[in-house]
Amino acid sequence: MGENKNKDLFGGSFVKMAAILAAAGLIVRFIGFLYRLPLTNMIGDEGNGIYAAGYNIYNFFLIMSSAGLPVAISKMVSKRIAFEEYKNVKKVFTTSMIATGVLSFICAILMVLIANGISFMWHSKWSFLEDSYKYKFWYDSIWCLYTLAPTIFIVSIMAVFRGFFQGFNTTVPTALSQLIEQIFNAIFSVYLAYVLVKFGVEFGAAGGTAGTGIGAVSGLIVLFIFYIKSRKSRKEIFSLDKGNYKIESRKSIVIELFKIAIPMITGTAIFSMTNFVDMVMVNSRLAAAGFNSEAIQSLYGQLNGKYVTLTTMPVSISTAIATAVIPSITVSMAKKDMAVVKSKVDTALRVTMLISIPAAAGLGALGSQILKMLFPNYSDGGVLISVGSFSVIFLALSQISTGVLQGIGKVKTPAYNALWGALTKIPVNYVLIAIPQINVVGAVISTTVCYIVCSILNFRALIRATNTKPDYVGMLIKPSISAIFMSIAAIAAYYGIMYIIPSNTFATIMAILFAMVVYFVVMALIKGFREEDLKMIPAGNKLINVLRKFNRI
């Protein structure tokens, strides 16, 4: 009775949770694109490089303070809900809030101290800064660090709320808070960058990062409102407490929390360290190849402001599925229902590839054209998108396999696999970036290699742990066939339209729309869609109705 009531009051199925997060994730990514357009056109590739340098340091400390917490808390909460231990559910929430608050506050202070240290070393002319043009972006990024430091604390508190709600099988608070957070982030990032860029590009970049903090505050307010409004529902559920169980101590909860979270933090930190590897090696190896300071900052800005931004957008779907699948699979594992676990794993893998493969193909076909459309004043870097588009598939596979492994309790495995992936990146970076003709494309290639290694190792571990026999035809072959036809159609449509109407923006948009239609039609013809898969993506039910009319599902 308790489980059914919980589902009615708070959430829904794994499919519903994933669909809600996927829709929100796509909108959030789209808003992110919209505000990065004027921001990039104001601060340029150089400003993007400064922005990225500060943001990568912030992201590392954010990972140290909160990465893995939503997952860990959702696992802990959902497991206790499954056994109706509601007093322990409340204690998990309050204990997690205290532990996270303390840790994130320490990380925020450390970030300020690092900014002060960079400033001191720069003005003191330390010996390793003699060749200063290699390291100037570090000094320019200290203003970003100052504006981002308080955000660490705010985002970490949000992580606790989101994990708590996800444990109750609802992603609505997470989704809505992400939307509000991104809207405020977009508005204030652009506005503050516009106001401050007149004082220098480094201050314009800092204005962009300041918007991140304002967005985080708005997202936290939304989550707090949800928490207050759902108090009555929680009381009704908590009244079903079975009572005959041991009340856990705060110490045991903290130990369990970090026992789950630390491997996740480690794995995420390793991936984050690849950004540090790029930040250091791109600068040093490009300098070794003969590039000057301005060229280095611009190329680094293209790498982070364009390649990373564009290639991570399609992955929002797999991120949503991974977030939804963890508490869902945790409950199924607790009940030892392996048939349900295998079904969820198979569906999650198939939907991830259904989105990621055509997205990668589209970016590969129209990378330069998309950049020219989005960043008319700074359109360089198309080769990064075309070469790196392949990484979308393996990043998505890595994320979803990580989510499944964490859901079934194999939290250390993704961390080890991420380490192997990161280790392969370093030698590839070292060799390729220093070749002038390849330059920063070497970082894109090494990132792809990193994701390939990580995803293959994760995938192998997932199959062994769950005994799942993946639907390779539905997961890989059919989407790949459709994506090939789609890519050919996209290129043909672009150049055909350009011949008639010589407008890159118009031709690119129309080519993308035409390519999407071709992908859908080919997938329908070869019966590549499944009803349970389409329910997990935005507008999935409408697509199901269309396919049913033509007997294609």
Give a verbal description of the structure.
α13 (338-374) runs parallel beside α18. With 553 residues, the chain is an all-alpha fold. 83% of the residues lie in helices and 0% in strands. The chain has 2 domains: 2-470, no CATH class; 472-553, no CATH class. It has helices at 2-10, 14-66, 69-82, 86-123, 136-140, 142-167, 172-196, 201-229, 231-238, 250-288, 293-312, 316-334, 338-374, 382-388, 391-407, 412-433, 441-466, 472-500, 504-525, 531-534, 540-549.
Question: What's the helix and strand layout?
Answer:
Blueprint: H1 2-10, H2 14-66, H3 69-82, H4 86-123, H5 136-140, H6 142-167, H7 172-196, H8 201-229, H9 231-238, H10 250-288, H11 293-312, H12 316-334, H13 338-374, H14 382-388, H15 391-407, H16 412-433, H17 441-466, H18 472-500, H19 504-525, H20 531-534, H21 540-549
Short description:
This protein has 553 residues and is mainly α. Helix content is 83%, strand content 0%.
